[in-house]
Write a structure and sequence with these properties.
With 170 residues, chain A is α+β, with helices and mostly antiparallel strands. The first copy, chain A, has helices at residues 2-16, 27-39, 41-46, 50-54, 74-84; strands spanning 57-64, 71-72, 90-102, 105-116, 129-141, 144-154. Chain A has five helices and six strands; from the N terminus they run ααααββαββββ. In chain A, strand 1 and strand 2 form a beta hairpin. In chain A, 26% of the residues are buried.
Chain lengths: 170, 170
Amino acid sequence: MRLSACLVTAALALAACKPAATPPDTSAAAKAAIDAANATWPRLTSTAHADSIADLYTADAVMMPPNMPTVHGRDSIRAFFAVINTMAGVTLALRAESVWASGPAATEMGRWTWTWAAGVTPPPGMPTADSGKYLVRWVEENGRWLMAQDIWNSDLPLPTPPAPAPAARR
Amino acid sequence: MRLSACLVTAALALAACKPAATPPDTSAAAKAAIDAANATWPRLTSTAHADSIADLYTADAVMMPPNMPTVHGRDSIRAFFAVINTMAGVTLALRAESVWASGPAATEMGRWTWTWAAGVTPPPGMPTADSGKYLVRWVEENGRWLMAQDIWNSDLPLPTPPAPAPAARR
């Protein structure tokens, strides 16, 4: 009896723990938090809330926009979106396609859509609609999921550069 | 004796496992594998080895190039690089800046540099040099680290679109 009790105890002790090779799967919690954060973007962009957008990032976040240098830190990210916010009628919508999480970190792949309000004419050189893909690494800090690294690009082809000027006629 | 032996057994069983809340840190192994894979890019691109480049990706990898649609799967990625490889004199170099790993997955942030061999004139519309940033999610499959999601963009500003044609003179 004592031996079998001992085996049961050992078995219970082993059953109570999980192998270290399996990181905790926090995908469901991360996905829910990421979906909730993403759902705020259309309102925050269309109402020009650069402060609230910056608060979705960690203090030392790295934002990698296309066709410009990397932006380092929440303060610079806030300044970036303050410039975006000077363009009236912009709405940016984000949609997570996949989220892979492990413990307090997650990587999200998704798609973004940039639209102008009806009746708004985009500034010269900007497309009337734009969309593309992104990859974001999120971290959980004090119970909140925040963006730590963020990169995106557009599906639209590059604008055609100006053709060389024709030779002047004599 | 039997009880103490039992306690020792239970204690050993518990000591053999680690708390599930701590994912195994595979960062060092992942970083080494990623650095080794990255080091092959200059040779593989300058010698037009699209097959070997594609083998750095998982079978169902998602590649997200700038200014074109997402590329799905290793076969399509191979075809993408076969097109790149038709441009003679291209060298693409990659450098990991940070790698965050947990168990069999890792996310890498890095920088890429695209150069042309001396004496090669880039095709019309392509810059003489280009560089930018990337984010890649890697997974370990059968002991090999492979790229599963890959996105990048350029630091270069967009080409200026052609100015509207001036009104014809009468």
